[in-house]
Design brief:
Elements (H helix, E strand, L loop, with lengths): L6 H12 L4 H30 L6 H12 L1
Helix pairs in contact: 1-2, 2-3
Length: 71
């Protein structure tokens, strides 16, 4: 049962299992990785939008804004 995981997630779960993590721990780590990837993607989009519109800011502001929007 893949529980709705994509192929990349299944391989990462396998790697976590090989590192000795329980399925619960592996799924928790996978969830954290997915959150970080979503934050990275949105922060980059915010950065691009900032540049396009000539707005002031920095990467930390983009990161915090992305985190806030995803909560």
């Amino acid at each position: 049962n893949s529980e709705g995981f994509n192929l990349d997630q299944i391989f990462r779960l396998k790697e976590f299992h090989e590192q000795g993590l329980s399925l619960y721990e592996a799924k928790n780590n996978l969830g954290q990785m997915d959150k970080v990837q979503a934050t990275e993607k949105l922060a980059y989009e915010l950065y691009q939008e900032r540049l396009k519109n000539g707005l002031a800011g920095d990467h930390e502001g983009d990161w915090f804004e992305a985190q806030e929007r995803l909560q």
